[in-house]
Design brief:
- Strands 1-2-3 form a three-stranded parallel beta sheet.
- It is elongated, with a radius of gyration of 22 Å.
- Helices cover about 55% and strands about 10% of the residues.
- The chain has 14 helices and five strands.
- It has two domains: about 220 residues, 3-Layer(aba) Sandwich (Rossmann fold); about 80 residues, Tyrosyl-Transfer RNA Synthetase (Orthogonal Bundle), CATH 1.10.240.10.
- The protein starts with a strand and ends with a helix.
- The chain binds tryptophan and iron/sulfur cluster (SF4).
Length: about 325
Amino acid sequence: MKKRILSGMRPTGKLHLGHLVGALSNWTKLQSEYECFFMVADWHALMSEYENPQMLKDNMLDNVIDWLSCGIDPEKSTIFIQSHVAEHLELSFVLSLITPLGLLERCPTYKEQLREVTNRDLSTYAFLGYPVLQAADILLYKADAVPVGEDQLPHLELTRQIVRKFNHIYKTDCFAEPKALLTEATRLLGLDGRKMSKSYNNYIGLSEEPEVIRKKIQNMITDPLRIRLSDAGHPHKCNVFSYYSVFFSEQKQEVEQRCTKALTGCTACKKELADKILDLLAPIREKRQELLKNKKHIQEILSSGETKASSFARKTMAEVRGLLKI
Ligand code: TRP
Ligand code: SF4
């Protein structure tokens, strides 16, 4: 029997290279080893974007198309939309019965978001419960492991605490503590050297036009000390070089040498990077065009994912209802 994983992504924007290296390429690899559930976390997105439901709706299908284009295979994995499986909210409520308020208030991601996000009001009842719903997502499918980035570890720890308390109170072993499958820290920086993010507008979108991507790469800042072509460069201080390291490590040495020996200029170096990134994105782009021709097919994928997820979720909820005598 394969072990099971569940992971989710909030449909808060279009996907970019950061999602590809941070999650999607990992998800794609895990598909052969695990039974996978990949979920569009629209309830989680609504917790902060409750004023923009249309934006979320527009991104939802678009994100799923990107998942499929990047190699998520509906024959292997169950792909579904969180809000289409009602049991997520039901189990979330049950778990909230026993989740100590203090644990949620002290959660580092919660405190950080309250501090950092200033353009909308996150001091809501729902947003405090964000990790409880995430625990429900995971436990509904009795996932053995959850592929996540480091930022999500506090939520996994909370899930484990909730599991221990639930099993203790109801004298059951209904749930097992899920493990975090930490995605290797291939942190891709944005075009300006900060974290790649839609809100910084420093990203390369998976579905952007090649010419736009070329321009974006050509505008990247390089080694600030390299003014003339004849100056030796410092690749380790150059964000362009970090892109070579993340995506084309086989070429790293060569680029490093040419840079430190002032054999190539930055414009040529960036042009070559752009060529290579466009080559990397070409098959994704092609698959995307193909998928866009048949949106009905994507709806079918989502509805069969929903059917599979629902039947799993119903079973878990029946067990939980039994324990709660309801
Ligand atoms: N909180 C996750 C994020 O922002 C998304 C998410 C929702 C998730 N439910 C999940 C991830 C369950 C893993 C498992 O990235
Ligand atoms: Fe960066 Fe390439 Fe210029 Fe060196 S040659 S500084 S690696 S862009």
